[in-house]
Design brief:
This protein is an all-beta fold. It is built from no helices and eleven strands.
Length: 156
């Protein structure tokens, strides 16, 4: 199942690893955009396999960033939510992480990252896995990072 995003188009690029894995963070590629010298230009999802191997997923944009920042959950935690500021693509982002509890996330054991990027304004969006385990990402891949969804495991 997907959470977040706008379901009006099917022209998306789904990234769900074949090996059982959990979304645990992102590499953020930062660079100038508009009046800001520090905006998100590209997101690359980071997964941790059931054998504790950390690996990158498909980049969520084709833009080049001058600096890479790795945002990774603490051991035993996974991405449970994302907040973004967008204008012609995602420009500023922060993440919420929850402790993994079996095939669910424990919202009572959570923490947030700071915002990454200096962008203000535009459209503000928040998505939440609602305690479901994040196993992938889906969305458009263009020059910049467009709207996207988290793919969650259905355990019911």
């Amino acid at each position: 199942a997907r959470v977040g995003g706008n379901p009006q188009s099917n022209a998306t690029t789904r990234d769900v690893p074949e090996d059982p894995s959990v979304l645990v963070g992102f590499d953020l590629h930062m660079g100038p955009f508009g009046d800001s010298d520090d905006t998100v230009r590209k997101l690359v999802p980071l997964f941790r396999s059931e054998h504790d191997r950390l690996f990158e997923g498909k980049p969520r944009a084709n833009a080049k960033g001058q600096q890479r920042r790795r945002v990774l959950a603490r051991d035993g935690y996974a991405v449970s939510g994302i907040s973004t500021h967008s204008e012609a693509g995602v420009r500023k982002v922060k993440f919420t992480f929850c402790r993994v509890d079996g095939l669910r996330l424990d919202p009572l054991d959570a923490y947030e990252s700071p915002f990454y990027g200096e962008w203000e304004g535009g459209r503000i969006a928040t998505l939440d896995t609602e305690g479901k385990l994040p196993v992938g990402i889906d969305g458009w891949v263009g020059l910049g990072t467009g709207e996207f969804w988290l793919v969650v495991a259905e355990t019911d």
